[in-house]
Specification:
alpha+beta, 3 domains, 8 helices, binds zinc ion
Length: 264
Amino acid sequence: MFIFYNYSFATHKCTVGIFYVTCKGKQFSPNDSYFIVRIVITFALFMTKTAGRIINDPVIGEVLLKKSTRARRISIRVHPVKGVAVSVPHIVPYMAAEAFFKLKRQWIIDTMARQKEKFKDVQQPAKETIEQLRKEAKAYLPGRLADLAERYGFTYNKVTIKHNSTNWGSCSVRNNINLNLNIMRLSRVLQDYILLHELCHLRHHDHGHAFHLLLEHVLTDNLVRLIDAGDEEALSLARKVAVSKAKYPADHVITKVLRQYRLI
Ligand SMILES: [Zn+2]
């Protein structure tokens, strides 16, 4: 396939440049050519974003060096299941990432050993357990999220039920909310905490003061409603919130309970 770039002001009223794509003697129209070039560029950008390099370390195993558009500095992730990955900002060469990896190699080995020790008696959950949780999550969470959003005046794009080992939930800049199916293992107060936390991110995409003020407001209101509905855990937590000296008492008290749970 040949791509001709034809610069012309006269032949097309919308664009200053016209791309003609010719394939096996057939010349595509300017409109089709434009879309073909766009697809090629998008694919090339996608490849540069997702492509990475792999280092094979005799002790650590495969280490993925990955360019990231969001990374501001080189960082290393050591994950018990996903393995080791080094994120590199786009403009930084892979060589620098390799040098950084060599510098931190011992730290990675120590971290992997610690993780092995920590997870040695964690059983992999049965597939059926996960599927059951997924079914329950799909049946319950979207509705509950919609109710809470309506009550506190939040609007989001869509909600997706996920199964990952890194977070209970997340909220994207496009206002899409992801919820982990593990939420179904939690009590009502903790479930609502995660949902409300993500809903507050619709207004503040960070964990700043404004985010926390909003979260405290909705958490306390929700606690009162749960108490009214006869939720005993909500009552016991509300008592702790009332005497807590923490800067954000409701968040502090509830996350302390949440930290006792691990994602499976
Ligand atoms: Zn958050």
